[in-house]
Inverse folding.
């Protein structure tokens, strides 16, 4: 019996990463081995439960967008905490990724019509201004 990567691997690794990360951040357990065992068990449960697999596969597009945004925001805040100067190139890349997400706004949210057009217009304008400002600041640094 071959294990299908899509129906077993993706839910398993997704839950493993989410649970391990949550345990790591919460600090409930100090031993990383205990955290890993708990994450593996919950990952196996999620991968073998049909409802969990369907749910995880249905939320993966939204979860991936969310985690990319959270990763970049976390990266930016960590860099700022260390007292380093702003990385304007990174800010421009993050804004470009947000702009790409914004292109698919109607499909992602289900909001259509005039409201969606106004949201996309305003958010797109703000994002483009931030990208241009980032490019300007990057040019001033050099």
């Amino acid at each position: 019996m071959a294990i299908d990567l899509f129906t077993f691997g993706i839910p398993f690794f997704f839950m493993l990463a989410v649970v391990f990360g949550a345990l790591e951040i919460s600090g409930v357990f100090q031993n990383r081995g205990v955290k890993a065992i708990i994450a593996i068990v919950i990952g196996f449960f999620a991968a073998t439960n049909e409802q969990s697999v369907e749910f995880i596969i249905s939320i993966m597009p939204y979860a991936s967008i969310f985690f990319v945004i959270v990763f970049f925001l976390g990266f930016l805040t960590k860099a700022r905490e260390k007292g380093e100067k702003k990385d304007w190139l990174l800010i421009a890349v993050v804004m470009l990724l947000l702009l790409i997400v914004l292109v698919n706004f109607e499909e992602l949210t289900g909001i259509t019509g005039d409201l969606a057009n106004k949201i996309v217009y305003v958010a797109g304008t703000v994002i483009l201004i931030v990208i241009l400002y980032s490019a300007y600041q990057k040019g001033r640094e050099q």
